Amino acid sequence: MTGTGQIAVGANAVLLVIDVQNDFLPGGSLAVANGDQIVPIINTIAKSFANVVLTQDWHTEGHISFASSHAGKTPFETIDVAYGRQVLWPDHCVQGTDGAALSKHLAIPQAALVLRKGFHKEIDSYSAFTEADGKTTTGLASYLTARGLQRVFLVGLATDFCVAWSALDARKAGFETIVIEDACRGIDTRGSLATAWDAMAKAGVMRIQSRDLKTQTIVAREGR
Ligand code: VGL
Ligand code: ZN
After folding, report:
1. Containing domain of residue 42, as a range?
2. How many helices (H) and strands (E) does the chain have?
3. Which of 27, 146, 185, 205 to pair with 34, CA 20 to 30 A apart?
4. Does 79 reside within a domain?
5. CA end-to-end distance (rounded Å), the chain
6. Lining residues, ligand 1, CB within 6 Å
7. pLDDT tens sequence across 201-215
């Protein structure tokens, strides 16, 4: 099946590549099923984007989101913390570890920013824009606005957590927001994937496939 190939990227677009890190890939501590399949798709898509931001989940040891930080708790259970409900995860993406490293198979040399998130021990951050307390900003919205970027395309891991939360926050911040579904994979714990797509649809997030994108060759340009 072929796509429309009609969705133009445009000069005011940014590609957000969410958390393509070893711990979320096969063999990692929080491996997302078939997560490795998206890497070549992302590399191809990225060729059409002059503006790319990579995100990196970057937790302290003993992070609040780790089941191991809470006596008697096991991964995928939920608990209530100061800012609301928190899913508990296996230890993952600990600062400086190999699991936290970006996949060495990503090939996006023009990526301008690697944005780390989730580095406050007592606050998780699925979103690349706002931490889980709903108020601590990562600065990403201001960065994009300062660079004149208004359309946010998202790819990466995991569809139902960091991709979805980032997409919802991008909408909240007023960006046109597009998730490229086949360039993402989900964790899908307790129905989370369907819930996430539902929330994204309600918020006006567009859902497309990589074949719907009009490919373009980006040209290097002088600063403005
Ligand atoms: C993620 C769970 C915990 C993600 C990060 O990247 O989607 N999921 N930390
Ligand atoms: Zn995490």
Report:
1. 13-59+96-212
2. 4, 8
3. 205
4. no
5. 41
6. 19, 24, 57, 89, 126, 157-158, 161-162
7. 999 999 999 999 998
Look-up: residue for tokens 């790319």? 52
219 CA from centroid of ligand 2 (Å): 35
Exposure on the CB side of residue 76, measured as CA atoms within 13 A? 8
Does residue 176 lie within any of the structural domains?
Answer: yes
Judge contact between 45 and 15, C-beta under 8 A.
yes
pLDDT in tens, 44-64: 999 999 999 999 999 999 999
* Nearest CA owner, ligand 1 atom 2: 161
Long-range residue pairs from 140-144, CB within 8 A, at least 24 positions apart, any chain: 140/53, 140/115, 141/169, 141/170, 141/173, 141/175, 143/53, 143/113, 144/14, 144/53, 144/175
User: Between the CA atoms of 47, 223, 167 and 22, what dihedral angle is there, to the nearest 10 degrees?
Assistant: 60
Give the CATH number for residue 203: 3.40.50.850
The atom number, within ligand 1, closest to the CA of 24 reads: 6
Query: Is the Cβ–Cβ distance between 171 and 32 less than 8 Å?
Result: no
